[in-house]
Specification:
- There is one protein chain.
- By secondary structure, this protein is an alpha/beta fold.
- 36% of the residues lie in helices and 20% in strands.
- It has a seven-stranded parallel β-sheet with strand order 5-4-3-6-7-8-13, sandwiched between helices.
Length: 366
């Protein structure tokens, strides 16, 4: 990568309207601070690495309710330096004030509760945290004239899709879970905020499918607190002997082998998509658009188990169980738009995803 880029820089004042453009000025991207809410989480931490590799200066904002401070150590080992970190709730305006003391170029917003089953049991928590914090954060951005926001959405906004693969024009149906509803609500909120900002806030809504894997260094990866709610971390913990056998939730779905189908993509591929979305916003200031992020192929739960065994040589202890509330039958992406507009597509195979996830689990140990 070239060490310098020609950018349209914005010098931020203390309020809306206090922005000065300087055109055609050479500046290192390293000076461009990007707030990453939930940056100590699974996808957020990998995106921090991708941002540094692209020359940005990430700033992690994470209250560590769903992550651990040890992730910061893993990032330091990968990057060779400590990343700026603020242990605060991104929806707390007073706590966020120090984060904004230096100019901010943009925000990538991951921070949210994300377990489908937990959202069914505790919908109030999901509404308050996911929707409420996004509203507060967006208000802070508009108040300060921050121009770029990349939002972590989800394929769950489509609900039970009537046709596959789903593209960005697929109708958004009633959500299958409170978690899915919060993503739908946040997207609507950001569309209204974008309109109200009158061209001063660009928004990229990234609807991604099922991220798995880990950084190839095995320094960071998925680190669920308590019992994993997602397939792959439960799978790796089962193989490692930490959990009992894996329960496959339902084998009577109308799919070729009876198990649910998802689009699994490598978390490093996904992290790189967030950088691509940020750079798209830089080229198209004040824009709003939505992008599916996936491989374009669906894999069933049974296929994932088989791919893991092929990639690692380890058998997966498992049994069949009943369906789980909130799960859709099958969903996978048409990611053509992301390729055409963002210049992004996945590079890593399902087997590589699972091999990296296992390497991370081996490093964690029992």
């Amino acid at each position: 990568m070239e060490p310098y880029r020609t950018l349209r820089l914005r010098i931020y004042g203390n309020g809306p309207g206090k922005v000065t453009d300087i055109c055609g000025m050479a500046e290192t991207a390293q000076s461009l601070r990007i707030i990453v809410t939930g940056g100590a989480g699974f996808i957020g931490s990998h995106t921090v690495v991708a941002l540094v590799e692209a020359g940005y200066e990430p700033v992690i904002v994470d209250d560590l309710r769903n992550s651990k401070a040890s992730v910061l150590d893993g990032l330091e080992r990968i990057l060779g330096r400590r990343v700026e970190f603020h242990a605060v709730d991104c929806g707390n305006a007073a706590a966020m004030a120090p984060v904004f003391e230096r100019p901010v170029h943009g925000v990538i917003h991951f921070a949210a509760d994300k377990a489908v089953g937990e959202s069914v049991a505790h919908p109030e928590q999901y509404f308050a945290n996911n929707i409420g914090a996004t509203a507060q954060l967006t208000d802070m951005l508009r108040e300060r004239g921050i121009a770029h926001l990349v939002f972590s959405s989800s394929c769950t906004v489509y609900g039970e899709a009537s046709a596959l693969p789903v593209d960005e024009n697929t109708p958004v149906k009633p959500a299958a879970s409170p978690y899915g509803f919060t993503k739908q609500a946040c997207e609507s909120l950001l569309r209204y905020s974008h309109a109200a900002a009158d061209g001063q806030l660009g928004v990229a809504l990234l609807r991604y499918f099922n991220p798995i894997g880990a950084h190839p260094s095995a320094e960071i990866g998925e680190l669920p607190l308590g019992t994993p709610a997602n397939l792959v971390p439960f799978l790796t913990q089962s193989v490692a002997g930490i959990r009992g056998e894996l329960t496959v939730h339902g084998d009577d779905y109308p799919t070729p082998d009876g198990t649910c189908i998802r689009d699994y993509l490598h978390v490093v591929d996904l992290a790189e998509a967030h950088v691509a979305a940020l750079q798209w916003l830089e080229r198209h200031p004040g824009s709003l658009d939505v992008f599916n992020l996936g491989t374009g192929e669906g894999s069933s739960v049974k296929q994932v188990l088989q791919a893991f065994e092929e990639a690692t040589g380890r058998p997966v202890p498992h049994r069949m169980g009943p369906r789980r509330a909130g799960d859709v039958t099958a969903i996978y992406a048409d990611a053509t738009k992301a390729a055409d507009v963002l210049g992004w597509s996945t590079k890593r195979s399902l087997q590589q995803c699972l091999a990296d996830a296992w390497r991370w689990q081996e490093k964690l140990g029992g």
